[in-house]
Structure formats: C-alpha cells, structure tokens
C-alpha cells in the first residue's frame, strides 16, 4: 500500500520551523487540560450534553460518556482489540472499558509524555506518543477504532482515514466524534447573519485566525466530505448538529450562557431542516474495501506557512514565544495550579 504518497504535507515539511512551532503550540494547549479545566469549557455545558444525549441516544440524562456512546452498548457486541487515536487523558477509553464494550485500548497521543501526570492511569489503556499526521497502522489489526476530537486537528486527513480503513478488521467499527465546521472557526457570513438575526442585542465577535493556534480545526471543513468518500457507503449511524450552538459559544461572552436553552432549541430546528451546515458529527462506520481514498492536494511551503502561521499582533507573538520557550513547562504548571481543586 502506498502510504508515502498521499500526504497534504510531507515529512520534510514537518521538519520546518513553521510546523514545529505549531506542533509545540498544540502540545502546550493539550498538556494544560486538567479534568477540572475540561469541565469548565463551555462546550461541556450540562444543557449541551443533555441535548447530545437526546439526539444521539434518545435519553434525557446520561452519566460518563453515555450521551454519545450508549448505542454501542445497546446495539453492538463487545470488541476484542481496540485503538484510540488522540486519546487525551484517556477518559472515554476508561469509560468504554468499564462498561465492558472494550477489554483494553491501545492509544496514540501527541501529548502522551507531557500529559503523563494528568493522564488516567489504567493497565488496560496503553499509550504511546506519536504525530498522527504520519501514523502507520497494521493491516486488519483492530475491530474498533475511536476518533474523538482528533481528526479536526490533523492535516494529512486523506492519509489518516486510509490508514484507519486499512487497520480495521472486516467486521470492525469506526466511531467518529468530530468538529466539522469552518476551519479555524472562521464562520461564514451566512452562519453569523443567522445568529445575529435570531439573537438581536447579543454581541458576536468571531475569533481572528491567529487566535486559533496549533492545529486546531486546521482542515475541519474538509472532514465531512472526506469521511463520506472513504466510509459513506458503510455508515451504520450518523448524527450532525451544532451549527448554531458552537458558533454561539465561540463568539459570545460566557454571560450569554443564560440563553443556552434557546440556543439549543434553534440548533435542533436548524439541524432537522438542514438550513445551515453542522459543526459537529458523530458517525459509526465499517471498513470499506470497495473504494480508494481521495488523493490529497499537496500544500506548498507558502500555503503551510499561511495556514499555520497567520499574521498576528506583536503582543500575541510575544506570548506564543514565551509558551514555546523553556519557560513553557513552568507556565503549564502554574496554569494547572490555578485549577487545582
């Protein structure tokens, strides 16, 4: 299989200063996410979790990660050999092991070494560090692969999706839970116009491109078409939503969370009507042996620099430089101390 010829960026480009700086920023962001801090992210608002549980699993309340994994436990038999790409702290993996769906997990995580003091330690979850943009997986080696909030952080999507398909057993399952909205959260005028019309008086301030650093949502707008191409005809379940609530919480002050029920009600209406593209997708797929992956469009060095290093104010450059300096680990420890219970 030609795994070396379907890259958007090459290993040579990954050795560039631009890529290495973005990689360091990604690691810095990921390694600072304690459990307490994750709980404070607006995307984890209890009303949003309840909404997700209702549309994905048909339940009003869910504990752990049952809001979007309950159908695995109720419709599919337990798995034997499982892989998680971008496992973070290992929370979802531990939940699926504890429910009996997975006996254990192999995981590959960019921040594995930096997050070692925060990671959930479980002998049934093994983790190894790795840059998933250049991952290589053994053929037909896993009957369950989990991608939870990782694909939208990757550049070499065609390569990674092909590797996932390559690694699934003939009866294997792939569970994808991803942000699939505009890349770098640069929401379209149509989406913002709908928001402002629905919520007059609310101030919406979209983030500047330089504010969305590392590899965050670097090619997220390409995800749904690529997933559909690679796995569309093997889809078991599919849910797409979030076209209203995600840009709302991204572009407004936390004080506006008082309107979250109203926001979710509109999100559900828009998702059913399909009048705006979704920002989130949950899908369950099987191995697809009938189709080749789409060929990647290579980025030039200039495009790589433009996408990963957009123009930013001098103050932001100074802060980024400090984070990437030897003082970076000290800043991370201070950040964790602030959120320590």
CATH architecture: 3-Layer(aba) Sandwich
- Biggest sheet overview: 7 strands, mixed
Which stretches are low in confidence, meaning pLDDT under 50 for 5 or more residues running?
none
**What is the highest CATH level, the class?**
Alpha Beta
Q: Supply Rg.
A: 20 Å
Q: Strand order within the widest sheet?
A: 3-2-1-4-5-7-6
Q: Could you walk me through the main structural features you see in this protein, from its secondary elements to its overall organization?
A:
With 341 residues, this protein is an alpha/beta fold. The protein has one domain: Vaccinia Virus protein VP39 (Rossmann fold), CATH 3.40.50. 40% of the residues lie in helices and 14% in strands. It is built from 14 helices and 7 strands. It has helices spanning 11-14, 17-31, 35-40, 46-57, 66-75, 91-98, 157-167, 189-198, 223-231, 245-251, 260-273, 301-308, 314-324, 328-338, and strands at 82-85, 105-109, 125-129, 142-148, 168-179, 235-241, 280-286. It has a 7-stranded mixed sheet with strand order 3-2-1-4-5-7-6. β1, α6 and β2 form a beta-alpha-beta unit. The protein is globular, with a radius of gyration of 20 Å. It starts with 10 loop residues before the first helix and ends with a helix.
List the helices and strands and how they pair.
Layout: H1 11-14, H2 17-31, H3 35-40, H4 46-57, H5 66-75, E1 82-85, H6 91-98, E2 105-109, E3 125-129, E4 142-148, H7 157-167, E5 168-179, H8 189-198, H9 223-231, E6 235-241, H10 245-251, H11 260-273, E7 280-286, H12 301-308, H13 314-324, H14 328-338
Parallel strand pairs: 1-2, 1-4, 2-3, 4-5
Antiparallel strand pairs: 5-7, 6-7
Helix pairs in contact: 4-5, 7-9
């Amino acid at each position: 299989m030609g795994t070396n010829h379907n890259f958007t960026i090459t290993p040579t480009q990954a050795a560039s200063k631009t890529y290495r700086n973005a990689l360091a920023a990604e690691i810095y962001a990921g390694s600072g996410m304690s459990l307490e801090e994750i709980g404070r992210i607006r995307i984890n608002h209890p009303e949003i979790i309840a909404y997700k549980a209702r549309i994905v699993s048909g339940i009003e309340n869910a504990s752990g990660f049952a809001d979007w994994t309950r159908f695995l436990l109720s419709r599919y038999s337990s798995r034997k050999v499982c892989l998680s790409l971008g496992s973070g702290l290992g929370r979802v993996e531990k939940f699926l092991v504890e429910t009996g769906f997975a006996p254990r997990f192999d995981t590959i995580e960019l921040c594995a070494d930096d997050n070692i003091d925060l990671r959930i330690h479980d002998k049934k979850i093994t983790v190894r560090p790795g840059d998933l943009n250049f991952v290589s997986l053994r053929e037909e080696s896993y009957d369950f692969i989990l991608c939870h909030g990782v694909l939208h952080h990757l550049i070499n999507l065609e390569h990674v999706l092909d590797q996932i398909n390559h690694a699934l057993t003939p009866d294997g399952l792939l569970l994808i839970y991803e942000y699939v909205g505009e890349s770098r959260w640069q929401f379209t005028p149509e989406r913002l116009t709908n928001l402002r019309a629905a919520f007059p008086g609310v101030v919406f301030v979209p983030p500047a491109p330089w504010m969305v650093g590392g590899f965050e949502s670097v090619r997220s707008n390409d995800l749904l078409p690529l997933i559909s191409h690679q796995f569309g005809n093997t889809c078991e379940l599919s849910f797409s939503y979030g076209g209203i609530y995600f840009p709302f919480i991204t572009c407004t002050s936390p004080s506006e969370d008082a309107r979250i029920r109203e926001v979710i009600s509109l999100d559900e209406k828009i998702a059913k009507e399909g009048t705006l593209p979704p920002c989130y997708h949950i899908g369950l797929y099987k191995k697809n042996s009938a189709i080749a992956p789409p060929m990647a469009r290579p980025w030039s060095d200039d495009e790589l620099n433009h996408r990963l290093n957009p123009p930013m104010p001098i103050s932001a450059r100074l802060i980024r430089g400090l984070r990437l300096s030897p003082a970076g680990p000290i800043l991370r420890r201070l950040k964790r101390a602030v959120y320590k219970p």
